Amino acid sequence: MTVETKLPYDKQYIESFSSDRKEPEWMKELRLHALEKADQLEMPKPDKTNITRWNFTKFRHDYIPGEKIASMNELPELLQEYFDQDNIPENLLIQRNQSVAYSTLSEELKEKGVIFTDIFTALEQHGDLVKKYFMTDAVSVDQNRLTALHAALVNSGAFIYVPKNVEIEVPLQIVFWHEDPSAALFNHVIVVADENSKLTVVENYLSSASEEETVANIVEEVFAHDNAKISFGAVDHLSSKTTTYLNRRGVAYENATIDWALGQMNDGNTVSENITHLIGNGSSSNANAVTVGRGKQIQNFTANIVQHGKGSDGFILQRGVMLEGATTIFNAIGKIEHGAIKANSEQESRLLMLSPNARGDANPILLIEENDVTAGHAASVGRVDPIQMYYLMSRGLPKDDAERLVIHGFLAPVVTQLPIESVKKQLTQVIERKVY
Amino acid sequence: MAGSVLEIKNLHVSIEDKEILKGVDLTIKGGEFHAIMGPNGTGKSTLASAIMGHPKYEVTEGSITLNGEDVLEMEVDERARAGLFLAMQYPSEISGVTTSDFLRSAINARRGEGNEIPLMKFIKELDKDLDYLEIDKSMATRYLNEGFSGGEKKRNEILQLMQLKPDIAILDEIDSGLDIDALKVVSKGINKMRSEEFGCLIITHYQRLLNYITPDFVHVMMQGRIVKSGGPELAKRLEAEGYEWLKEELGIKDETVEQNA
After folding, report:
1. Which domain of life is it from (chain A) (predicted)?
2. Closest residue to B77, CB basis, from A385, A393, A411
3. Å from B78 to nearest chain A CA?
4. Per-residue pLDDT tens digits for B76-113
5. What angle do CA A317, A49, A149 make, to 5 degrees?
């Protein structure tokens, strides 16, 4: 089988796509530059997963507006379980295909200067701010062919900016609904917490069931400036026919914190990298992630915390459950750069195998270039303990129920980290559905 | 309804091809408390595990029935739902699952679909039993057995016994590792279960527990068989004189199952 190397879209297409979106000139330039790069760059090479036969480059690309949602009382059925009807979020953005279907931001936050909008509106109204953060200090255009392709072809996304000294207690929630798979999802998210600010953001990715093969190429860039604190939750649940590349990047400056709680529940093949740079002294990050693999899906997750700052603190926690013929690789990388004295890097990756046909590997990697630091790692790939099962069943629980309890218990340390109750509940439901 | 009957006949059990039980006969009826005593290594815990269906123990001969139904044909969970309960010597730790969530699932598994226990009723009864066993309320929200002390695990087993209300319970060395106060509390819980509908098999090395729970029948196990049965006075004599007189009487030199292996 040969790999498609010719890119599907040319310069003219991108120029007119950018003009149609009324983008600033710099964005058009950036796209065109990225397109050139995409031709020359290599594909990413995730450790221990061969993706050379995965289709990331053959897809249809377009801007397909989704139907508006007039009221939260009339939510499409698929979205209903994402919300608690008695407790609709005050700050919510629902993107349907490539356009905004619903959006709301409290008056209070608007007055404080909080920006919470889709990426195209942000480019139009806050071009300079977007320019400062769009694939500059976090993910670079030329990291690999897929990031370049992403930059060239972004067709949706969101932008969040919290000004200095603004602390938001209520979470901001975003739903990315890939309803029509005939256009690939090139979604770009930027979250910026300026100095001394605080915010919680939770995003959901979901697709409508479809037999059509499609591609998701997602880049997310999260910035916590000095003393800022970001709590970032996500539930990814794209369809089995979607091949996904997901690049989530964090940058934390002096005494800043970025905590991740990621429910990685895609049904299709997925390569995901979650890299956090702890630039500032005293900065910290907890990178929590769970996954459930089912069917024949192959997934590769890299959680990487790169510590530059003195006294910085990084903790990676990954848990995964593998069913049927699924394959999952967990790469956990704790990197302490030279000069990051008193830094602490901890990591734990565990996989639970429920089927003899499932495969998995947990690779603990510590790269330490400074002496005065502390670090630790734990990794395991195991099966359900038959003695645990015996104990639970001896109280009358049927085998399936006992197994379900063990699975939820195994994933609980990460699930409980999700910052919104309704999203936690929804993740639990997705786990339940994936497991049985 | 009269109590249940657990009948064990000529039970032979092996672990990894080594025979541990060599023909055990025992009948436990609702309303009766039996104690099995005996030194270490004589097969007491094997009997408990074999009745419940521990995956490592293989029954090679004999039968176990509950009210005439073949227990050996049942899966572990079916045995529990049929009315058996085993308080384990080493309960498993189940991370991420709270004691109360687990208990409610277990109660509902026995009650069956459509007959689930109402939440408020469950909470009320759980609170009552926690108080009775002098267990801190926080245990209900802690992960099942995770980080529990030895004593807490034993109390938790009795809490489960009280909540699940089985017909026949087997208590495998429920007294091991307990101080005298904990022993009293645990005994109080077990005694509360006493009724015509409840039968109990208590496995212990020590007569100590039997000071608080008076058995109707006492059996002594040696070399994988029950070698002597009697009333509470048998336990008292063993406490006072040890096992030597009995070994002499029976002509046994080494009481452990190793002897014939």
Report:
1. Bacteria
2. A393
3. 7
4. 999 999 999 999 999 999 999 999 999 999 999 999 88
5. 95
Q: pLDDT band at A2, cuts 50/70/90?
A: very low
Degrees, nearest 5: CA angle A100-A104-A105 = 130
Task: Name every chain A residue with its beta carbon within 8 A of the beta carbon of B96.
Answer: 408-413
Q: Tell me whether residues B95 and A410 touch, CB distance under 8 A.
A: yes
CATH of the domain at B219: 3.40.50.300
Predicted ipTM beyond 0.90: yes
User: In this complex, is the C-beta atom of A436 within 8 Å of any C-beta atom belonging to chain B?
Assistant: no
Determine, yes or no, domain membership for A396.
no
Contact A411 B94 (CB under 8 A): no
> How many CB pairs below 8 A link A and B?
80
pLDDT digits (tens, 9 = 90+) for A303-362: 999 999 999 999 999 999 999 999 999 999 999 999 999 999 999 999 999 999 999 999
Q: Say whether pLDDT at A400 is over 50.
A: yes
Closest chain B residue to A411, measured at CA: B96
- pLDDT, residue A255, reads 98
Is residue B135 included in any domain, yes or no?
Answer: no
Domain that holds residue A372: 11-383
Q: Choose the closest CB to B97 out of A385, A390, A405.
A: A405
Which residues in chain A are closer than 8 Å to B77, comparing Cβ atoms?
Answer: 393-394, 396-399, 402
Phi, psi (deg, nearest 5) at residue B123: -60, -45
The verdict on a CB contact (< 8 Å) between B92 and A385 is yes
**Under an 8 A CB cutoff, do B97 and A408 touch?**
yes
Q: Do A405 and B88 touch (CB under 8 A)?
A: no
Once rounded to an integer, what is the mean pLDDT over residues A183-210? 94
Torsion sign (Cα): A173, A179, A180, A185:
positive
Which one of B55, B75, B143 has the shortest CB-CB distance to A386? B55
Please state the rounded mean pLDDT for residues A91-108: 94
Distance from CA of B102 to the nearest CA of A (A): 8
In angstroms, the CA A299 to CA A297 distance is 7
Alpha carbons A291 and A268: distance in angstroms, whole number: 12
Tokens of A317: 């926690």
Domain membership of residue B87 as a residue range: 5-93+149-250
**pTM of this structure:** 0.86
Of A424, A381, A387, A399, give the one whose Cα is nearest residue B94: A387
Residue B116 lies in a domain: no
| Helix segments in B39-177, DSSP class H | 44-52, 76-82, 99-111, 119-132, 150-164
How far is the CA of A147 from the CAs of A132, A268, A287, A431, B182, in angstroms? 17, 20, 22, 30, 63
Q: A399 CB near a chain B CB, below 8 Å? A: yes
Number of domains in chain A: 1
The whole-angstrom distance between B110's CA and the closest CA on chain A is 6
Amino acid of residue A369: E
* Residue B50 counted as domain residue: yes
Q: A402 lies in a domain?
A: no
CA–CA min distance A402, chain B (Å): 9
- Per-residue pLDDT of B159-211, as tens digits, reads 999 999 999 999 999 998 899 999 999 999 999 999 999 999 999 988 889 99
Residue B24: pLDDT band with limits 50, 70, 90: very high
Return mean pLDDT, chain A: 93
